[in-house]
What we know:
Blueprint: H1 20-30, H2 37-42, H3 54-59, E1 68-73, E2 80-86, H4 91-106, E3 107-112, E4 115-120, H5 124-137, E5 146-151, E6 154-160, H6 169-174, H7 183-191, H8 201-207, E7 217-220, E8 224-230, H9 240-248, H10 257-264, H11 268-280, E9 285-287, E10 294-296
Parallel strand pairs: 1-5
Antiparallel strand pairs: 1-2, 3-4, 5-6, 6-8, 7-8, 9-10
Amino acid sequence: MGSHLYYEALPSVEQNLTFRYLGEIFKENLSIEDITTDVQRTLGFFTSQSQYNHAAALFADHNNFPGIDIARFGKSINEIFDREVLQNCSILKQFFDVIELYKKHYQYEKIDGVIRQQHELIPEIAVREAVANALVHRTWDTRSHIRVEMHPDKIQVYSPGGLPKDLNREDYLKGTVSTLRNPIVGNVFFRLRIIEMFGTGIRRIKESYTHSMRKPEFDISDHSIMVTLPTVGDAITLPPEEKAIYELLVNDIALSSGDITAATGFKKDKVLRLIGRLKSQNYIKQTGAGRGTKYHL
């Protein structure tokens, strides 16, 4: 039965499901007053035999799936300030609870004269995308929690399950292709505008660090994905020509000097000279050699 179905589309063991929290979120964001059976069908919550599927259970007020394990650390992992496991509730509630914790510890207000300004130690866009991606793309038949580790200098989001089999590391990091492991779950997040568009999450994370010295890191293995979001560093100030090259590399995993020459219109020797300056200041890195040489942030 399951050979042609995603795990999320298989029948849920629990069929007595309620959607009060989902209804509140839909009313607030989409002006939909009630999660009727027709709305549930539109969201893809039923099997062909009109049974609730696993995706429905994930958004239900109560379920038996693993959740999100959150820990807030001090200067070392031996100092644990807070620990909470969000589970047995709608994954939307888990998502928004994590974002509230993030806001509590990584956002602050600063008053400049009569103006009150909001500041972020870590970009909220990056945190929202990282946590949403973990929920949308994780393997739900694995009994492991998503882990969110909050450190003074970074947030790390660990998601069980590696990349879908049709998606390679390079395409994942470029953010140009999206192979959804859980399309029903992803569609609900998309409807609620929690994720902007399928496949753009990684690019949005990178772009939120465009003007920061410190950059996000993506550690991908066969069985997990770890996203590290550092606190933003000092703003980058570069001469216009060097900045043009730097900003090219924000959205691409790696470019050759030929790629950069074509994109900027600069002459080859000028590109190499500018690359040399950026490398000497540790703004960009080099991989490969000879014709295989590429540059990345």
